[in-house]
Inverse folding.
């Protein structure tokens, strides 16, 4: 194959003849489709050594010969009649930031665990996991807006309208993966930029350490002022007046100097509790985008992608069962898949639908995935003897308003990773503020009205899974 021959010609000019003969001559080209080059290697050890010793050379060569979209896939030669395994090449090496000058940092007074002090300069660990790249992120209606915004940000960090980018949604929907993917893509396109990923709780701990232990608040703020792209995960944990005041100063400095800010949260900016108004208003400056439940096709594609990354082959009927029955979280879906693979490997059993059923029941239970906004709405409608159309209408009749508010309240209570925006969209097309008001109203009425409280508890009892 001419493409692989061209690659070998370039690689042969970079590395010494002996390692070239040992590690590149045995590689056989298999196919080239849509910028993806598939090659066959002798063993898993051979592949791992190539990735460890020569990944950077291979990546640069492929981009030179094929283009920026070049991808590499390994095929491991079959053993004892088993089907060949396909494994994608790593997306890239662990990203590194260039060293920078940071005020008066001293090893004994370092306010951040992510900095390696030197005499005059320090190197900041970006704390980005190469696995969390865009290439390993499956696109769907649940995350397409966030991906599009993220790719635009990576191309021109700090220069798009999406600053800050506020990503929110329930647990297991890919917020951390999305945020880190933007950071990784930014580092790839702008190698000299300083990118840092930190959680809200870590920022709070660093601030408290800088102020109360080392008396180094100035150095702490100086450190964060050097960041070009700051990613703060789980920003809802950024509690405390002093912490928020420090973060307010960091936010202002970075934003005013054209630096990029990316936040993730388990709730929208409007739902954040115990935050300063001036900080909340800044969270809303750019783009707030929600990650929602993945649909069936997205879930199935994610499972196939993960199988490909793991180099395993699992029948479509098993993947289709998992995709159909685990509906609310990428994390639970991946956990179920890994459990199926592990159980089949340890017990030497076939990856069957029966095994998938057993694993699924152990991980999420028989009834958990049956709870939905639709089920709650139907139950509430039956209890109050109102139609679905009446509940979703704009009617202000007391009974219908109460039914609508109780459906919103129970959806928020019983579906833990369901945002207010999602609830409002499915119950009458309301916004998150209306849903929040409904939930607060139900809580208040339950505290003072015994009859109303009985309505809510009766419906919740009806929705509760029966004992087996």
């Amino acid at each position: 194959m001419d493409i692989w021959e061209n690659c070998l010609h370039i690689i042969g000019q970079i590395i010494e003849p002996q390692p070239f003969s040992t590690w590149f001559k045995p590689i056989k080209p298999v196919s080239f489709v849509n910028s993806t080059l598939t090659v066959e290697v002798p063993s898993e050890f051979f592949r791992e050594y190539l990735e460890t010793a020569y990944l950077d050379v291979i990546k640069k060569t492929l981009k030179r010969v094929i283009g920026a979209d070049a991808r590499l896939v390994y095929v491991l030669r079959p053993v004892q009649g088993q089907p060949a395994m396909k494994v994608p090449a790593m997306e890239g090496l662990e990203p590194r930031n260039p060293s920078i000058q940071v005020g008066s940092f001293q090893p004994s007074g370092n306010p951040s665990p992510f900095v390696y002090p030197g005499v005059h300069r320090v190197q900041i660990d970006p704390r980005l996991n190469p696995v969390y790249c865009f290439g390993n992120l499956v696109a769907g209606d649940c995350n397409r807006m966030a991906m599009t915004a993220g790719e635009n940000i990576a191309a021109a960090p700090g220069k798009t309208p999406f600053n800050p980018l506020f990503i929110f949604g329930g647990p297991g929907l890919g917020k951390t993966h999305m945020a880190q993917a933007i950071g990784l893509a930014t580092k790839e396109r702008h190698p000299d930029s300083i990118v840092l990923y930190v959680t809200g709780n870590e920022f709070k701990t660093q601030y408290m350490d800088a102020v109360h232990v080392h008396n180094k608040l100035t150095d702490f703020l100086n450190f964060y002022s050097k960041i070009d792209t700051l990613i703060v995960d789980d920003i809802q944990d950024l509690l405390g007046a002093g912490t928020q005041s420090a973060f307010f100063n960091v936010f202002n400095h970075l934003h005013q100097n054209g630096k990029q800010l990316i936040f993730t949260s388990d709730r929208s900016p409007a739902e954040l509790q115990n935050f300063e108004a001036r900080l909340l208003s800044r969270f809303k400056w750019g783009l707030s985008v929600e990650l929602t439940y993945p649909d069936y096709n997205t879930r199935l594609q994610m499972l196939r992608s993960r199988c490909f990354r793991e180099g395993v082959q699992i029948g479509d009927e098993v993947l289709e069962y998992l995709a159909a029955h685990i509906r609310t979280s990428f994390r639970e879906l991946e956990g179920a898949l890994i459990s199926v693979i592990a159980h089949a490997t340890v017990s030497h059993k076939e990856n069957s639908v029966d095994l998938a059923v057993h694993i699924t029941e152990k991980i999420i239970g028989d009834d958990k995935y049956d709870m939905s906004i639709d089920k709650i709405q139907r139950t509430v409608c039956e209890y109050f003897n109102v139609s679905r159309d009446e509940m979703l209408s704009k009617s202000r009749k007391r009974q219908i308003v109460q039914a609508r508010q109780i459906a919103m309240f129970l959806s928020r209570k019983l579906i833990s990773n369901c945002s207010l925006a999602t609830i409002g969209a499915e119950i009458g097309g309301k916004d998150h503020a209306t849903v929040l008001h409904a939930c607060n109203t139900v809580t208040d009425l339950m505290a003072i009205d015994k009859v109303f409280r009985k309505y809510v508890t009766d419906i919740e009892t009806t929705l509760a899974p029966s004992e087996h």
